[in-house]
Design a protein that fits this description.
The complex is a heterodimer of chains A (about 120) and B (about 120). Chain A has strands at about 5, 10-15, 20-25, 30-40, 45-50, 55-60, 65-75, 75-80, 90-100, 105-110, 115. In chain A, the strands form 2 sheets. In chain A, strands 2, 4, 5, 6, 9, 10 and 11 form a 7-stranded mixed β-sheet that branches. The radius of gyration of chain A is 14 Å and the shape is globular. Chain A is an all-beta fold and about 120 residues long. Chain B is mainly β. Helix content of chain B is about 0%, strand content about 45%. In chain B, the strands form 2 sheets. In chain B, strands 1-9-8-3-4 form a 5-stranded mixed β-sheet, with no helix packed on it. In chain B, a hairpin with a 5-residue loop joins strand 6 (about 60-65) and strand 7 (about 70-75). The chains are: A mainly beta (about 120), B mainly beta (about 120). The interface of A and B includes residues 43, 93, 106 and 110 of A.
């Protein structure tokens, strides 16, 4: 159990376009989802935390107007990179946390999305 | 959440035990020690967690010192597929208090290379 599906696994887009990444919890309800970004040879950096039905909380330095997060249901969160530029090229990873009745280790990660902006 | 310190890299021979240390000297009484690993170009994978007692599951064992200021993750028989970055994270349990939805903060981790 506790599977998180992230789609697409990789995407190449032109500079100036927008890209949407989906994160779905397949067999549990995720009250909270997290979005991370990882540059080559670096650790995961948290971008934002989203709770179902409310606005996302962004980490310091992350542009909320550039990285749009929607968490409209308990099983789906989306991250849209708007007006992407080459410096946005990175590995984006989502994580879903189960509700308060879940297990103590209730963080499950998606397999990541490799975004390349050309 | 308490900060952790891990060695940058470690090597291990296939079939031998891999012992990965983690220092968390500022850990609080209600904070757990979590271990995740990340194989190249994949999302992190949960390994094990513990509060103060040693823990064992099908993947690994976790040894926590009595003062809880450090811990060791043990992979008893490392295989080539265990080559990954291992992250030690200290935080309050995710279901603590029912309304806690705290984030996992990743440090640099330890790059474990298992060689033939």
């Amino acid at each position: 159990g506790a599977v998180v599906s992230q789609h697409p696994s990789w995407v190449i887009c032109k500079s100036g376009t927008s890209v949407k990444i989906e994160c779905r919890s397949l067999d549990f309800q995720a009250t909270t989802m997290f979005w991370y970004r990882q540059f080559p040879k670096q650790s995961l950096m948290l971008m934002a935390t989203s709770n179902e039905g409310s606005k996302a909380t962004y980490e310091q330095g992350v542009e909320k107007d550039k990285f749009l997060i929607n968490h409209a249901s308990l099983t789906l969160s989306t991250l849209t990179v708007t007006s992407a530029h080459p410096e946005d090229s990175s590995f984006y990873i989502c994580s879903a946390r189960r509700g308060k009745t879940g297990s103590v280790y209730g963080y499950t990660f998606g397999s990541g999305t490799r975004l390349t902006v050309v | 959440d308490a900060k952790t310190t891990q060695p940058t890299s470690m090597d291990c021979a296939e079939g031998r035990a891999a012992n990965l240390p983690c220092n968390h000297s500022t850990i609080s009484g209600n904070e757990y020690v979590y271990w995740y690993r990340q194989i190249h170009s994949q999302g992190p994978q949960y390994i094990i967690h513990g509060l103060k007692n040693n823990e064992t599951n099908e993947m690994a064992s976790l040894i926590i010192t009595e003062d809880r200021k450090s811990s060791t993750l043990i992979l008893p028989h490392a295989t080539l597929r265990d080559t990954a970055v291992y992250y030690c994270i200290v935080r309050v349990a995710s279901n603590a208090g029912g309304t806690s939805y705290g984030k996992l903060t990743f440090g640099q981790g330890t790059i474990l290379t298992v060689h033939p």
